[in-house]
Amino acid sequence: MRQSQLFCKTKKEAPKEAETISHELLARADFIEQTISGVYRFLPLGFKVFKKIERIIREEMVNLGAQELYLPTLQNKQLWLKTNRWQTIDPPLFKLKDRHQKEMALGSTHEEEITDIVRKRIKSYQDLPFYLFQIQDKFRNEMRSSGGLLRTREFVMKDLYSFHTDEKDLIEFYHKVRKSYFKIFKRCGLKTICVEASSGTIGGELSEEFMILSEAGEDRVLICQKCDFSANVEKIGNQKLCPKCKGNLVKKNSIEVGHIFNLGTKYSKAMGANYQDKDGKERPIVMGCYGIGLPRLLSTIVEVYHDEKGIIWPKEVAPFQVHLIQIPSPAYSGAKMKKRTEFSSPENIPKVKKAAEKLYRDLLKQGIEVLYDDREDKSVGEKFADADLIGIPTRIVVSERTLEKNCIEIKKRNETKTKLTKMSQIRKYVG
User: Residue 286 burial (CB < 10 Å; 0-12/13-18/19+)?
Assistant: First the structure.
C-alpha cells in the first residue's frame, strides 16, 4: 500500500475524551474515530488489525471443530421472555418497536437465539456433541462508556456455544476452549491469567475470565502470592487470604479479554431444548458459552504494546509487516530530522525513488505486507513520527547514504538501534 494513497490522517493531539493510552494512540494514528459516546468507526488501518485478530480467532475456533453461523441483531422478545431476561439482563437491552408496534431488542448476547435454533434440530444423543460460533455485532446499553474501545455500546464479539449430553462431556470441551483461549491471546502477543469470575446475568455453574493486568483496567482481581488461585473481586469480595492455601491475596487492576461459562441446563430447561438418551428418556441439553470481544482485545494490545512515540504492534496482528520509507537526501542521517527540501537535489531523487520502488515491488512479490511511504510533501521527521505512531513492526529506510553501501537501513519498532544490511538479506529480518 502506498502511503500517499492510504486513507489516513494522523494527528499530533489526542481527542479530549481520551482516557486511556490505547484510545489516545488509536485515535491519533487514525485507526478509529468516535461518532457518538461508546460507538466507534474503524478506519482502514484499524480495520486491518481487526481482521487480523478475527482471523486468529476464527482459525482457533475451526481447530476446535466448531462451525460458523451468523445470527440476527434484531431479536424476538418472546425468546427473552422464556428465559425471564427481557427485564432482568444487565446492562438492560436496547428495545425498539417496528412500524407495526411490535417490540424487539438489539442483541446484547445470543443464548436465546442459539438455543431456539438447536431445540428445533436436536432430537437424539447421537446428534451431540457439536459446537457453533459466530463473530457478530453486540449492543450493550451501558450507563457509561469508557476507555475508548475498552467499554463500548456497540462492538463485535466472538460467541462460541457448545452442546453436550452430560456435564462430563461439557467439562472436557470447556478445558479445550480454555487452552485454545490461551493460544489465541498468545498469538496476539498477550500474556493472560485465568481467574474465577461471576456469571452475572448470563448464568451458569462455572465461569472464568481471561485477564490482562493493566492500570487501565476497570476490573479488580485478587491473586494469591503462594498458589495459582486468582479471582475477580466480583466473585469473592475483598478477601485478604486465599481460600485455597490461606496465602496473601494481592489486588490488581485488569482488563477482561475473554469469558467462558458452564451454562449447564439453564437455557435448555427454560426453552425446552431436549434430546433422547440411549434409553429413550428425554433430557435437557447441557450447554457451554465462550466469548471474546474483538475491539476490546485490539485496544488491550495497544495498552500493553506502546511507548512515548506510539503503538508497537505484535507481528501477527500488525496492519503491515514493513514500513518502507524513501529519503532522497545525501545529507540524511537517522539523528537529523531535516526537511527534504533543504538538502534534496533533483538528480538525487530518481536514484533513491527508483531503488525504493523496486524494493517495494520485490517485497510484495515475496508476500510481505508493506506500507510504502512515498509521500513527497512530508519531511523526514514527519515520516519517522508517523512510522513510530502507527507502529508497524519493521521500518526500512532507503536513502542515498544506504545506497552508497548497497544497503538499506532496518529498525525494529520495539528496538532503538538501526542496522545497515544488504538488500539480499532483507528476508532474514522481515520474513
Answer: buried
**Residue 206: CA count within 13 A, CB half-sphere:** 13
User: SS3 helix, strand, coil % of the chain, rounded to 5?
Assistant: 30, 30, 35
CA distances from 416 to 337, 411, 412 (A): 16, 7, 8
Neighbouring-strand partners of residue 193: 211
> Can you tell me the distance from the alpha carbon of 38 to that of 130, in angstroms, rounded to the nearest whole number?
35
Nearest to 32 by CA among 113, 191, 148: 148
- Tens of pLDDT, residues 219-258: 999 999 999 999 999 999 999 999 999 999 999 999 999 9
Which H or E run includes 319? none
In the 3-class helix/strand/coil scheme, how is 162-212 assigned residue by residue? EEECCHHHHHHHHHHHHHHHHHHHHHCCCCCEEEECCCCCCCCCEEEEEEE
- Asked if 219 and 192 touch (Cβ cutoff 8 Å), the reply is no
In total, how many domains does the chain have? 2
Residues 6+ apart with CB under 8 A from 130: 67, 162, 163
CA–CA distances in Å: residue 108 to residues 126, 136, 266, 277: 32, 10, 18, 33
b/e code 69-87 from CB counts within 10 Å (16+ = b)? eebeeebbeebbebbebbe
Compute the distance between CA of residue 385 and CA of residue 309 in angstroms, rounded to an integer: 7
- Strand pairing category for 130-139 and 67-68: parallel
pLDDT tens for 82-100 read 999 999 999 999 999 999 9
Q: Which domain holds residue 273?
A: 21-307
Residue with cell 456469571: 199
182 and 275 inside one domain: yes
With beta carbons less than 8 A apart as the criterion, state whether 138 and 103 touch: no
Write down the pLDDT at residue 431.
Answer: 66
Which domain CATH number covers 242?
3.30.930.10
CA proximity to 414, closest of 336, 318, 325: 318
Residues 226, 342: one domain? no
Distance between alpha carbon 115 and the CA centroid of its chain, in Å?
Answer: 27
> Same domain, yes or no, for 344 and 250?
no
Cβ pair 174, 163 in contact under 8 A? no
Please answer whether residues 174 and 132 qualify as being in contact, where contact means their C-beta atoms are separated by less than 8 angstroms: no
Q: pLDDT, tens digit, for every residue of 374-383? A: 999 999 999 9
